[in-house]
């Protein structure tokens, strides 16, 4: 592989839209011994000028993932050396075949543009955005689907789906405050979802984390 990038694995905190826990940047972490505290997943950045082995990315394992009608078989053999840095990064971050990422370039280019955008209640731009603002912006720009502005209205205006039925582009809802829907994200694949959290801003989290698994309320498929 051309000597133009290296994978640097760092961790950064993921917290919900409704929690004020401080997000650290040191490895997989929990707060104290509370099993309900949010954990952290690895983030990967790619730096030009270094070398990494091609074995770091799954070249083909599509049978493990739901393709949701995506024509992965039409991609043929992927030349890993020519894979865009952004797609390469997210293939590793989500632990999925690079073919899948390549077939969803628009989605992950959008996420890359917004990644790390700070949280701002009522915000709707890169200076600051809240969870429902981010989900509605993503749905509009990537899928050309208009959804309501608030998380509760988004929940009310979608087809409910179970966790096992989730597909890329579905919305995932959480009951953070114990009073119904108060947080929303957009499902990606392999149990991962992207959302705007209070302390970390726009990040990718895992539904299997102790915190989010206990707060998960259900999935929703936006009506086209």
Automatic annotation (TrEMBL):
It comes from Pinibacter aurantiacus. Residues 1-25 form the signal peptide. One of its GO terms (biological process) is proteolysis. Pfam families: NLPC_P60. PANTHER family: ENDOPEPTIDASE NLPC-RELATED, MUREIN DD-ENDOPEPTIDASE MEPS/MUREIN LD-CARBOXYPEPTIDASE. PROSITE patterns: NLPC_P60, PROKAR_LIPOPROTEIN. The keyword Plastid does not apply. Transmembrane segments: none annotated. InterPro entries: Murein_DD/LD_carboxypeptidase, NLP_P60_dom. The keyword Protease applies. This is C40 family peptidase. Residues 101-223 form the NlpC/P60 domain.
